[in-house]
Amino acid sequence: LALWGILMTSSICLRQTDLKALIAYSSVSHMGLVTAAIIAQTPWGLTGAMTLMIAHGLTSSALFALANTNYERTHTRTLLLVRGLQLIFPLMSTWWLLTNLTNMAMPPTINLLGELFIISTLFNWSSPTIVITGIGTLITATYSLYMFLMTQRGSISTQFRLLPPTHTREHLTLVLHLLPLGLLIMKPALISGLFT
């Protein structure tokens, strides 16, 4: 049921037009993996669940912070209206890229470590689960890229030509989200050694 939930919520993400709803459903999808790992009740599963919960907590919070910075300037969360922000906010676009790559568990992020632990656990429990987790991972990559391209690329609407600049506090907020993720890559035993 947890794996089926991953597929359902990931599929919902592909059809979202509201940025915050997309991020929220992506969190539900990732927590489906965590639920499956906890139900498996193995050391690797619990380690993967703990790792992914911490990693996704930071990643999802960073995505919500980014969505809020967009909303404060454009006053809309509709993806079709908020396009081409890379031209106006290139540094914010870099934060979007890094956070989306982390969300889709690209190497060498700590999210990848958590997902590998969980996928290995589920495969040892029942080998057909590799198909479901593989499809879920593919859909996650698809909607993460969709979110990045819809917010950052394309031609910007004429109503958004004069937007207020980003502030240091917003960049500091994102540093405080992504820096711990980067440091955990250097020392993953801080969170992954709890159950092994």
TrEMBL record:
Establish whether keyword Transmembrane helix is in the entry. yes
**Which ranges carry the NADH:quinone oxidoreductase/Mrp antiporter transmembrane domain?**
1-140
Kindly state which keywords UniProt assigns to this record, in alphabetical order. Answer: Electron transport, Membrane, Mitochondrion, NAD, Oxidoreductase, Respiratory chain, Translocase, Transmembrane, Transmembrane helix, Transport, Ubiquinone
InterPro entries named among the record's database cross-references: NADH_UbQ_OxRdtase, ND/Mrp_TM
Q: Which Pfam families match?
A: Proton_antipo_M
Q: Name one GO cellular component term.
A: mitochondrial membrane
Give the UniProt subcellular location, in the record's own words.
Mitochondrion membrane
Catalyzes what?
a ubiquinone + NADH + 5 H(+)(in) = a ubiquinol + NAD(+) + 4 H(+)(out)
One term of GO molecular function: ubiquinone binding
Q: How does it sit in the membrane?
A: Multi-pass membrane protein
- A Gene Ontology biological process term: electron transport coupled proton transport
User: Keyword NAD: yes or no?
Assistant: yes
The record's principal subcellular location, in a coarse class, is mitochondrion
Q: Give the residue spans that cross the bilayer.
A: 21-40, 46-67, 79-98, 130-151, 172-195
Instruction: Identify its protein family.
Output: Belongs to the complex I subunit 4 family.
What exactly does this protein do?
Core subunit of the mitochondrial membrane respiratory chain NADH dehydrogenase (Complex I) that is believed to belong to the minimal assembly required for catalysis. Complex I functions in the transfer of electrons from NADH to the respiratory chain. The immediate electron acceptor for the enzyme is believed to be ubiquinone.
What this protein is called in its record is NADH-ubiquinone oxidoreductase chain 4
Q: Which species is listed as the source?
A: Podarcis siculus (Italian wall lizard)
Q: What is the lineage of its organism?
A: Eukaryota, Metazoa, Chordata, Craniata, Vertebrata
